Amino acid sequence: MPVADVRLGTGEHALNVTSIGYGAMSIAGAYGRIAEDAALDLLHHVEERGVNFIDTANIYGDGVSEQVVGTFLRDRRHEFVLATKVGIEKGGGVGQRRARGDAAYIREQVDLSLQRLGTDYVDLYYLHRVDPEVPVEESAGALGELVEAGKVRAIGLSEATGEEIRRAHAEHPVTAVQSEWSIFARDVETYVLPTCAELGIGFVPYSPVGRGLITDHFTPDALGEGDGRHNFPWFQGENLAVNQNLAEQVRAEAAAVGVPAAGLALAWLFAKAAELGAVIAPIPGTRYAQHWDELQAGLGQDGAGVGLPAGTMARLDALAEQVRGERSFSPDWVSGGREGLIPRP
């Protein structure tokens, strides 16, 4: 399973990473429990597949994900490009937390993350959400100060609007923007991706398989008690039945191409990114080694994406308009909502 290298950002703050990274929210129990030894085995599996890019955040499991990643990296820190995030305060769970991006909070939280990760620097430090009460310039400036202090190599933004990206980039060069993007979630194509392409900023899609919906394994019965997906409209009530039917159409297209559905979802991302002139490094997450291999099958023989027939792309492109429900529990929580692309309830 070859993996190509891509370059996120430009100039002195650019980062070379594998074209796919591991999203470590899954090892913090977001979609069900996973023991630490199983999580470490999975990270070793990802390493064996040639991947050197790991993405986590201080909020995942209230630090659990960072701690597990830190344990994994103990003897191999310099072999990996490590990303983590700041900007979501602890609260009562999904939908009950708030964004916080003031400079004092950012300075405080980076040291806590470094301690959990067992390292003295992170390669990429994201503002996890833009704080509506703090100018994004202040947050970007605080992140830039951490670069100057040697605690961070490059900065990023998560779920920022096109305008917010421009404002932050003017304060300090932004290396990567992370937002949800998949066959079913397309709002970033309007403003965010064109802005990244214009400014030379890398794009890191999270949830590229729709939180597991666009895979060969998802069934409604998979949503156990405590599964965070219960909070998202896609997985609620009648929406789920409609979206499950759309996922079945993706599975049929995948079977015709000869790749797993998760692999097809990634191949579609790489093809669409090429159309838009964007450099991407998706960060899917999973708790299972087999599922990781299905994801990586979408990279193809050159490690940069399976080529898809025009007809397949057209049929997949048409599915987003049929998806029932929105991708987030709150429009304000994601870039498309603040850009007027995701309707309010």
UniProtKB/TrEMBL annotation:
Pfam families: Aldo_ket_red. SUPFAM superfamilies: NAD(P)-linked oxidoreductase (SSF51430). InterPro entries: AKR, Aldo-Keto_reductase, NAD(P)_OxRdtase_dom_sf, NADP_OxRdtase_dom. Signal peptide: none annotated. This is Aryl-alcohol dehydrogenase-like predicted oxidoreductase. It comes from the Bacteria. Residues 20-294 form the NADP-dependent oxidoreductase domain. The lineage of its organism: Bacteria, Bacillati, Actinomycetota, Actinomycetes, Micrococcales. It comes from Nesterenkonia lacusekhoensis. Keywords: Oxidoreductase.
